[in-house]
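Input (Aldolase):
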Amino acid sequence: MLDQEFERVGRRLFMEGLVGANFGNMSVRGEGGFSITRTGAYLDSGDAPVFVPDAGAAPREASSEYRVHRAVYRATPHSAIVHAHPVHAVAASLDADLVRPADSEGGMLCPEIPVVTGSPGTEEIAENVAGALRDGHIVIVRGHGTFAAGKTLDEAYIYTSIAEYACRILFLSGRL
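Output:
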């Protein structure tokens, strides 16, 4: 069942252009840890996720961003995370420290999208993303991508989509 949820949300991310190739990852919190996509996996492939315990070593097959997911689960009540590479959000992060959506949905659901720093797969990015998601649902890592969190993968996907849409509107309106 979880495999199908990962595949369904992964397919939506691809169809909307929020990820490309084998970029991005997803996870769902469970008892004693979380299930996360495999390193190098295509999000719409249907590959079974890998279980990562709350503490200790992660399996080699786990996404290289497992540190971020673990840090978010430790610091927040969120139960699901989607990490994507939406083009307009990444572009916006190059020049902004905070993105303020101008569209009605973005303004209502995520009026401020913080931009943080950190190299992929490091403790720095894990700490910065977890800190930003304590009080919100979406963050952009400068030059890298978004991390969205919620109660379900669907909710995290929606925040990812809203952030990209908001950044696209800002670019098209000349505000970024």
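The CA atoms of residues 33 and 54 lie 4 Å apart.
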